Amino acid sequence: MIKDNLKIYCENLHRYVDITGGMSLWEVYERLRDELGFEPIVARVNNKTENLSFPLFSPKQVEFMKVTSATGQRVYVRSLCMMLYRAVDAEMPHVRLLIEHSVCAGYYCRLLSRDNGTEIEITDEILGRILAKMRELHERKLPFLRRERLTRDVIDRFRRQGLDDKVHLLTTQHNLYTTFYRLDDLCDSFYGALAPHTGLIGTFDLVKYKSGFLLMGMDPANPDVPRQPVTQEKMFQVFKRYEQFNRVIRILNVADLNDAVSQKSTAQLINVAEAMHNNYISSISSDITRLHHEKGTRIVMIAGPSSSGKTTFCKRLGIQLMTNLLTPKMISLDDYFVDRARTPRDASGDYDYESLYALDLERLNSDLAALLRGETINLPTYSFELGTRIEKDRPLRLGPDDILIMEGIHGLNPELTQQLDTTKLFKIYVSALTTLHIDDHNWISTTDNRLLRRIVRDHRYRHTSALETIRRWPSVRRGEEKWIFPFQENADATFNSSLIFELGVMKEYAEPLLKEVPHDVPQYAEAYRLLKFLGYFDPIPAEQIPSTSLLREFLGGSSFHY
Predict the structure, then answer these.
(1) ∠157-160-161 over CA atoms, to 5°?
(2) N-to-C CA span, the chain
(3) Which residues of the chain form CATH 3.40.50.300?
(4) Tell me, what DSSP letter sits at residue 351?
(5) Do the beta carbons of residue 267 and residue 544 sit within 8 Å?
(6) What gap in Å lies between CA 162 and CA 181, rounded to an integer?
(7) Which of 58, 63, 214, 450 suits a disulfide with 44, CB 3.0-4.6 Å?
(8) Above 90 in pLDDT, residue 228?
(9) DSSP 17-66
(10) What are the two backbone dihedrals, phi and then psi, of residue 44, each rounded to the nearest 5 degrees?
């Protein structure tokens, strides 16, 4: 058979490259190794992320991706998870591995007996054996072999391996063919590409934590060392609380959710999930009320990352406080911005409104201190049009039973209110901490959940395309990493704004927007990935969601005014 000569455009080299039709991306890389100067972990082909075994039979645009890129990091973690599964199966063949969620800068894992479902106590000896096996896999440089087979055959293979969760998921998808990966004669599935071989996955560690352990990947800032665990005790407890809730309602993964859709039981599921939110908001309100009477707590600071639902949470918290005979009064941190000429700039030279130092900290602390003394202040107003603060007649005084609620990304940063008595403050962290899983080895990223919320909200309320939202997202994430996440453990309470059913609802709203992202832009890769992810979910109609739901902040139809 004669193979055609082709030209592909290599984005890394900014030129065309001659290849032979049928060559894999890995073979192309080997030809360009010296020019590229790095070993890729994955590539984008026509702005779609592809495994390096992907064959080229027609002209394409190709960009090889470093392991330190955002895409490369996701590939690294997926590949690491399959190595962990292979190691656990080799050392403990009758054990079920659960990779549950991202926490403490790693990924929390547990081991269960396949015989009776009891949790296996993690010892240093067990972790040592698993870690040694993973290192052996790394040294052997075994390929991650991508395969595509009839779904019924994949189901049979997964059933023989005891992967009942994956069998359950595949039976709800109704796809004729299914893609999976094989490593050292063991199969697994992921919604995304894996590395070419285990030799590229050499930086990792396992750390005992609670009843399980943390899988630690590489530190993106220093790829030669694994990340070190960070303390996130409060976040971990929130995850555990909601996982208990998931077990009560028997919705542990996407397949369970799809079953609820097919059985037409989503109405009850929505009601129960919304009641869970009401219960927890009521509990937080009771804590604030108690501290108000016992210690004179007067100010509630609320912080959280983008699209976590902070605004609706504030409004619902205010209602609960009123039922406790307290009067909520709300102010915006935005009104305390310094004049534009004094605003810090980011690395690109743009005004950095996410910086703590974009706020007039002296004026803010002075005003809050005055309010706590029972004095009247005049609230400032910031004009984004003029780029300066203007003074209007906006008097504010806190009465004996008034509670001041402040929402802003810096609410948990101690430097924001360093001049105030901490006993007068109550701090709340709000985030969508998704506890639903795709299957035992694939969790749902909290970041993906928030990004989908933002895509839908930006389109509805800001007339912003999915393309633009995706383009801005890395900058948003950098701001969160710097100004929000380091302080989340300072919270007196953490509210999980995720709803177990929401991605089934979000599917109907987000898919049309993601499909509008043009194929000829780099952001198409992210849009395509999110579309594949949403493909796991059966749609859930939004009509049954109450007008007070936090999800209405993004979908529209809320009874609150924003």
Answers:
(1) 90
(2) 65
(3) 233-555
(4) B
(5) yes
(6) 16
(7) 63
(8) yes
(9) EEEETT-BHHHHHHHHHHHH-S--SEEEETTEEE-TT-B--S--EEEEE-
(10) -105, 130
Q: Is the dihedral of CA 47, 52, 58, 64 positive or negative?
A: positive
Residue with tokens 């390096």: 52
CB atoms under 10 Å from CB of 498, counted, come to 25
What single letter denotes the amino acid at residue 479? G
Q: Which of 320, 319, 316, 246 is nearest to 549 (CA)?
A: 316
DSSP states along 368-397? HHHHHTT--EEEEEEETTTTEEEEEEEEE-
Helix axes 310-323 and 266-295, enclosed angle (nearest 10): 60
Coil, strand or helix at 290: helix
Helix axes 164-173, 151-160, angle to 10 degrees: 160
CATH number of 71-226: 3.30.980.10
Question: Which pTM does this prediction carry?
Answer: 0.93
Taking the domain 233-555, which CATH number applies? 3.40.50.300
Per-residue confidence (pLDDT) for residue 3, from 0 to 100: 60
Q: 8: which strand partners?
A: 17
Sign (positive/negative) of CA torsion 211, 213, 214, 215? negative
Tens-digit pLDDT profile for residues 100-126: 999 999 999 999 999 888 999 999 999
**Over 7-30, what HEC string results?**
EEEECCCCEEEEEECCCEHHHHHH
Q: State pLDDT tens for residues 395-408.
A: 999 999 999 999 98
Q: What gap in Å lies between CA 508 and CA 315, rounded to an integer?
A: 26
3-state class percentages of the chain: helix first, strand second, coil last, to nearest 5: 45, 25, 35
Residue 553: count of CB within 10 angstroms of its CB: 23
Cα(506)–Cα(525) distance, rounded to whole angstroms?
A: 20
Helices 502-515 & 446-462 angle (0-180, nearest 10) = 60
Q: Which CATH number fits domain 5-66: 3.40.390.30, 3.40.250.10, 3.40.630.30, 3.10.20.30?
A: 3.10.20.30
| C-alpha span between 534 and 530 (Å, rounded) | 6
Say whether 311 sits in a helix, a strand or coil: helix
3-state class of 203 per DSSP? Answer: coil
Instruction: For residues 136 and 115, give the distance between their C-alpha atoms in angstroms, rounded to a whole number.
Output: 28
Measured between alpha carbons, how far is 354 from 476 in angstroms, rounded to an integer?
9
334 has a pLDDT exceeding 90: no
